Amino acid sequence: MHTLKAMQIDMFVIRHKQSGLPHYVAENIGNTAILNAGDGVNAHPTQALLDMLTIRQHKHHFKGLSVAIVGDILHSRVAHSGIQALKTLGTKDIRLVAPKGLQYNAKPCEAVQCFDTIQAGLEGCDVVMMLRLQKERMLDIPNEQDYFEHYGLTPERLALAKPDAIVMHPGPINRGVEIDSSVADSEQSVILQQVTNGIAVRMAVMAILAGKL
Hints:
CATH class of the largest domain: Alpha Beta
Structural class: alpha/beta
Strand content: 15-25%
Order of helices and strands: HEHEHEHEEHEHHEHH
CATH architecture of the largest domain: 3-Layer(aba) Sandwich
Strand order of the largest sheet: 5-4-3-6-7
Number of domains: 2
CATH superfamily of the largest domain: Aspartate/ornithine carbamoyltransferase
Helix content: 25-40%
Number of strands: 7
Shape: globular
CATH topology of the largest domain: Rossmann fold
Radius of gyration: 18 Å
Largest sheet: 5 strands, parallel
């Protein structure tokens, strides 16, 4: 990293399997902007920012929303950053839906509820945020089909949410594992809009950081 800095760069964009690495670099390399593009199972800040932008475009506010996050909560840096962002913006009903071995393990708070059935978690919610399931972390799940049968988002399960609920996913999608194709490609899906928003959000973050140099 010091060698790269010697090339007179202005910014590091770091994506790494080691949780906390961007913070470690920031503490040991001065006068260079550090952008966390995902560190281990810790955080994914720019994904949370683009997710919040997408929600705001459709729902216009956060304080009265019910948001269900479904999947591997335990290992998901997307979920961890999303929970922090939603709480910061005033969301009081954050529902975490996951199998027992993949559920949220942080200290519970008033805004967060944990569910082990997707039906209960989706009841009357405004936003359904699905998470990607990684095979190497499926220790408590026999197989992909079993996971889909219990936690996959189908049209019938989405019908439990509000009629104008939006469906989100950080991608890439595992069709038939986390989400049915008919839902992923439906009018309620904003997944491709998330991708588009990611360009503007990350450009904005880099512009802000560059302006502070």
